[in-house]
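# nightly structure sweep
# worker-07 picked up a monomer target from the shared queue
# config: single-sequence mode, recycle default, output format = structure tokens
# input follows
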Amino acid sequence: MAGPVPASVGAAGAAVRAENAAETLAFARPTLISQRDDALVRQLAARLQDDLPRLGCAVGALRIDPGWDAARDDAARAQLTAAGTDLGIVLGGDGTLLAAARIAAPLDIPLLCINLGRLGFLADISPGETFDTLPAILRGAFRAEERLQLHVELHRAGRLLHTASALNELVLHKWDSLKMIEFETRSGGRLLHRQRADGVIVATPTGSTAYALSSGGPIVYPDLRALVVVPICQHTLAIRPMVLGADQPLEIELTSDSWSKARVVCDGQQSLPLEIGDRVLIRARERSLRLVHPAHYDYFDLLRTKLHWGS
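# output follows
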């Protein structure tokens, strides 16, 4: 976990002068988005709410929960819209950012994340550098990336039961026993494979460094329009991870030979039980998520740091 906010943070923040308020800002109405309610989050949020108005920002705040249903997500979107939010500043880790993406992406609100979590593949500003880095970003010194998201539909007996989105991945997996499940995967309407396994991961390039990587999948550069399909503990080693074009919709069907119950989970947060014959349809969302990074951001440096390459 991230340590306490250094005392120097307060001094650095105090150096921001009111005369800067007349500057033209790239982001003038940020909203602080958090999940946890602990001393570290409260302390950092209080300092941001005190210092950012000195730059000329109108700062909002939103507390979210990854387990919210569609109605609560819609209510959060209404709050962001009413505040005129032009940037979401996420205070947390990758899990908080995934939940924020689900809420903010339909509004085309870009996100940046101050890392109060652990690994932080998506959260790339540390608490200690916040007040050195954030003012420059708000003034326009940043790098932005468009990140592919998934649109997921669950169909049963010809009826659409549920829709969801995912920034990292969709996971279809067994959940009630050690027995495998059997499923068919189609790409663009064509049969890709039929297999018995513990499940399958469909990951975006963003999610290629998460569960898919630990299951033997490749790392995919974030700006590629691609999907990674990775079996989980498959019965035969002949079926290997594949990288497919994101513009070809995927369909996964739980077949009648499945020996175990299954679930589909999006970004580790939205979970739905499956029945024999259910079809899960996956395609790229029309709207990508825009991530904002410091100007010095380098994806390869991120990989070297987080995965300890060459250390």
